[in-house]
């Protein structure tokens, strides 16, 4: 084991939600941690996220929930509406960090990134940009990691936190498929309408629309386009195409449509899911976050699983002398929970496409209650 200076060392691939959280949790437990991030130092641009109860609970364990609530928009209610904007149901999500704090928070991606990044840096994590892992080989109890800049480290732990298209996964000899589910999801940043104090979701004849507050001033509109081929559109066409799709919704969505017209940030992504059905670990290497399990966005819980992974990983490798044993314990604790979430999110995507909205809402609510159980 790499205890030459009484410190165990780790290389983490990727400074996303999973990588930054795992780095902070490991560094706080005394590990020397370096992150290899292929992207630039600037925070990733993009719309926003809804962090549900399990995310907030895990962030609270890291002492970061209140920072997210201060900069994001705390809320507890999901209101379901029909295509005209008439309410058809309401769900109160479980408040997992106490009755006085909200059940979830909407937050801009760059803001969450800044909070997680600052905490990892404060804990002494070295974050290197523009580099990746070129090769990883097990040498006894250590992993020999060669970075793309030619430098080499021998570390006790290698963590692949490089997202759904993970390269680390292949380097560890772990394979999974990425599955497309006939849905493209749209997001557009807009000013927050004053009535948007929780999540609103509108069930259309073909597509689903929603609004998620991100701060007092900002929100994002989402639209799930059903039954479409996976395709790319030129950036310049995104706002006008989204407005066309929103035109089939009268009532409140018409108001959102006019806000989208002025939005400078519209993105469109395929709904892709992945789940590593076998081991997530090999020797002293492991994959976490979307690299191991990427749910469809309908459950708004991919980040929750990624943050929980970081915490549980640090707990389990801290609890066991041999890293490999800790990694097996980690996967043992996480696999069923993550599988349930990925599979349920795929079922919800199918129900949405079949216009079985009530069943989709019921399943979403019951899955949120299930996820309120321990990480
Ligand atoms: C449209 C959409 C909406 C979503 N909405 C929500 C939501 O509301 N709530 C929620 O909880 N989740 C949501 N998710 C899911 C959530 O974004 C992911 O689950 C979460 O970001 C996973 O974190 P991660 O760190 O595993 O991966 P990522 O966030 O993808 O981070 C991976 C990091 O690794 C880096 N990287 C990639 N390849 C390499 C490499 N070879 N070497 C080094 N670095 C590398 C990347 O640059 C990135 O920084 C949504 C996802 C999508 C697509």
Question: What can you see in these coordinates?
Answer:
The protein has about 375 residues and is an alpha+beta fold. The chain folds into 2 domains: about 10-70 and about 110-175 and about 275-370, FAD/NAD(P)-binding domain (3-Layer(bba) Sandwich); about 180-270, 2-Layer Sandwich (D-Amino Acid Oxidase, Chain A, domain 2), CATH 3.30.9. It is built from 10 helices and 20 strands. It has helices at about 15-30, 55-60, 65-70, 110-120, 170, 235-245, 250-260, 300-320, 325-355, 355-370, and strands at about 10-15, 30-35, 50, 75, 75-80, 85-90, 105-110, 125-130, 135-140, 140-145, 150-155, 155-160, 180-190, 200-205, 210-215, 220-225, 265-275, 280, 285, 295. The strands form 4 sheets. It has an 8-stranded mixed β-sheet, sandwiched between helices. Helix 2 (about 55-60) packs parallel to helix 8 (about 300-320) and helix 9 runs antiparallel to helix 10 (about 355-370). Mean pLDDT is about 95; it is low at about 1-5. Flavin-adenine dinucleotide binds near residues 18, 162, 163, 167 and 185.
Architecture blueprint of SSEs:
Layout: E1 9-13, H1 17-28, E2 32-37, E3 48-51, H2 53-61, H3 65-71, E4 73-75, E5 77-81, E6 87-92, E7 104-108, H4 109-122, E8 126-129, E9 133-139, E10 142-147, E11 152-155, E12 157-160, H5 168-171, E13 179-191, E14 199-203, E15 208-213, E16 218-226, H6 235-246, H7 252-261, E17 266-275, E18 281-282, E19 285-287, E20 293-294, H8 302-319, H9 323-353, H10 357-371
Parallel strand pairs: 1-2, 1-12, 2-8, 5-14, 12-19
Antiparallel strand pairs: 3-7, 4-7, 5-6, 9-10, 10-11, 13-16, 13-17, 14-15, 15-16, 17-20, 18-19
Helix pairs in contact: 1-4, 1-8, 2-8, 6-7, 8-9, 9-10
């Amino acid at each position: 084991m790499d205890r030459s200076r009484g410190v165990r060392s780790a290389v983490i691939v990727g400074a996303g939600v999973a990588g930054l959280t795992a780095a902070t949790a490991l560094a706080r437990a005394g590990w020397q941690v370096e992150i290899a991030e292929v992207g630039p130092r600037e925070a990733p641009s993009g719309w926003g996220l809804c962090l549900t109860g399990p995310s907030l609970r895990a962030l609270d364990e890291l002492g970061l929930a209140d920072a997210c609530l201060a900069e994001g928009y705390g809320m507890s209610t999901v209101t379901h509406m029909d295509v005209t904007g008439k309410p058809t149901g309401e769900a109160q999500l479980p408040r997992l960090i106490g009755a006085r704090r909200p059940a979830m928070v909407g937050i801009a991606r760059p803001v969450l990134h800044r909070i997680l990044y600052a905490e990892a840096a404060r804990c002494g994590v070295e974050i290197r940009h523009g580099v990746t892992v070129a090769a990883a080989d097990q040498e006894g109890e250590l992993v020999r990691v060669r970075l793309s800049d030619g430098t080499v480290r021998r570390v006790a732990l290698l963590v692949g936190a490089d997202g759904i298209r993970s390269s680390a996964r292949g380097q560890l000899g772990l394979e999974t498929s990425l599955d497309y589910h006939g849905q493209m999801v749209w997001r557009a940043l807009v000013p927050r309408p004053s009535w948007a104090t929780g999540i609103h979701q509108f069930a259309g004849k073909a597509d689903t629309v929603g609004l998620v507050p991100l701060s007092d001033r900002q929100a994002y509109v989402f639209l799930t386009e059903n039954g479409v081929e996976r395709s790319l559109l030129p950036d310049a066409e995104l706002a006008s195409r989204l407005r066309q799709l929103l035109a089939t919704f009268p009532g409140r969505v018409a108001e959102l449509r006019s806000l989208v017209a002025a939005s400078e940030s519209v993105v469109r992504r395929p709904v892709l899911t992945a789940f590593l059905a076998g081991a997530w670990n090999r020797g002293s290497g492991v994959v976490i976050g979307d690299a191991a399990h990427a749910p469809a966005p309908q459950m708004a819980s991919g980040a929750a699983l990624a943050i929980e992974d970081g915490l549980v990983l640090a707990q389990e490798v801290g609890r066991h002398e041999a890293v490999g044993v800790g990694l097996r314990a980690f996967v043992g604790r996480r696999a069923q929970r993550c599988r349930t979430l990925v599979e349920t999110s795929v079922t919800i995507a199918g129900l949405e496409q079949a216009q079985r909205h009530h069943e989709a809402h019921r399943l979403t609510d019951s899955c949120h209650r299930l996820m309120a159980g321990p990480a």
